[in-house]
Design a protein that fits this description.
The chain is an alpha/beta fold and about 280 residues long. It has two domains: about 210 residues, Rossmann fold, CATH 3.40.50.300; about 55 residues, Alpha-Beta Plaits, CATH 3.30.70. The protein has a nine-stranded mixed sheet with strand order 3-6-7-2-8-1-9-10-11, with helices on both faces. Strand 10, helix 8 and strand 11 form a beta-alpha-beta unit. The chain binds iron/sulfur cluster (SF4) (2 copies). One iron/sulfur cluster binds next to helix 3.
Length: about 280
Amino acid sequence: MTNLKTIAITGGKGGVGKSTIAILLANKLRAEGKRVVLADCDIECPNDYLLLGQKLTKSIDKVKAQFPKLIKEKCRTRLPDGQECGLCVDKCRSKAIFQAPGQYPIFLAELCSGCGLCWHLCPYQAIEVEKKTIGEVFQNKIADNFYLVTGRSVGVVEESGPIVSQTKRISQELAQKIGADYLLVDTAVGLHCGVIRALIGVDLAYAVTEPTPLGAHDLKLILELLSLLKVKPKIILNQADLGVKEPVAKIAQNQKVSIEHELPYSKELARAYSQGELAKVNIF
Ligand code: SF4
Ligand code: SF4
């Protein structure tokens, strides 16, 4: 049994090389003889497997969620007094139910959070609960001391949180099973529910950014979120030699967070990235 350390790799802005950094960090730890599980929790567009030259074939788990299903025979679209019912349409906070005049309500799965309010409120029990698969989890063995767990959404989902949580849980179980030293959690970008679920409970988070004013702006937002979650932050400045460092340095100084690594642009890295050979690179 090892003391598993969980480290998130996150970033307020897309395109700063977050997934690349997550893999490079895994490579560094492996080179030091550590066992590593990498959890790709960027569930809408997971790409760590591509960068590692892998395929997602058979899922090891499915993530299900509850959705409303209309029983037309029970729905009182038109009430005896000539009024429309439409209670579910009025009360849905996600605006996920559409009803044209005189027609049955239609549930819009892309907007539905599965909160359950509509089936709870319907006075005629005209809404049933239906379980649907919203996500899948995959596992790849990259090397004896390196596993990848990938969470991926099925179609467009309103709530990514449950898929992220399940991906994290499966990664933690695998890490315990193989006696891993590190669990690296590659989050999505931004500040939404899926990012928050990925960050909750980690020991440390690397906020990856780039040397631009926009990079600095989004760095400030992610550092504020990490502070709220009481997660210890460090900064990695990617492609540090390709822009203006001052805005990022200023945010780091104001927030009293150290810039742990400054990674210069690397041709070797760009080639490995494009060839799906990142597992072979160690530039930390
Ligand atoms: S609340 Fe029930 S009865 Fe009323 S429109 Fe919605 S599904 Fe139909
Ligand atoms: S489950 Fe919630 S979000 Fe989905 S349609 Fe019903 S009320 Fe709206």
